[in-house]
Amino acid sequence: MEIYREFTFEAAHRLPQVPEGHKCARLHGHSYRVQVHVVGAVYPTSGWVMDFGDIKKAFQPLHDQLDHYYLNEVPGLENPTSENLARWVWQRLIDQLPLSAITVRETCTSGCVYRGQG
Q1: Which is it for strands 111-114 and 99-105: parallel, antiparallel or unpaired?
Q2: Percent helix, strand, coil in the chain (nearest 5)?
Q3: Could you tell me if 20 and 79 are in contact, meaning their C-beta atoms sit under 8 angstroms apart?
Q4: What NCBIfam families does its record include (predicted)?
Q5: Could you tell me where the beta strands, DSSP code E, fall in 14-58?
Q6: 48: domain range?
Q7: Structurally, how many domains does the chain consist of?
Q8: d(Cα 37, Cα 80) in Å, to the nearest integer?
Q9: Catalytic residues, which ones?
Q10: Long-range CB contacts for residues 22-26, cutoff 8 Å, separation at least 24
Q11: Is the entire prediction scored with pTM above 0.85?
Q12: pLDDT, tens only, 39-61
């Protein structure tokens, strides 16, 4: 079974590695949506894979580092693309949760899914 918990945060960033003149090189912000997906067996006694509150507890320190901050100044996010943000979240949660995917959406129509490879 796979379950997920979605989190939101507001943050500013710029992408320093895009071609000259690209609009994302300028400072701008997003209302980010991050889904933390975990996988496991459904426990017969509880009827769930894990408590959604445990996912929230694991993500909270990351939320505190990201919400209303300039992502380029967060260690490890000097080039804060959605892809790099998804990998950054994965690396900080993989020892705490049985992750299957991290999804990052920075707009209503654009995002990425990271499953731990690469």
Answers
A1: antiparallel
A2: 30, 30, 40
A3: no
A4: queuosine_QueD (TIGR03367)
A5: 28-39
A6: 1-12+35-75+94-118
A7: 1
A8: 21
A9: 24, 68, 106
A10: none
A11: yes
A12: 999 999 999 999 999 999 999 99
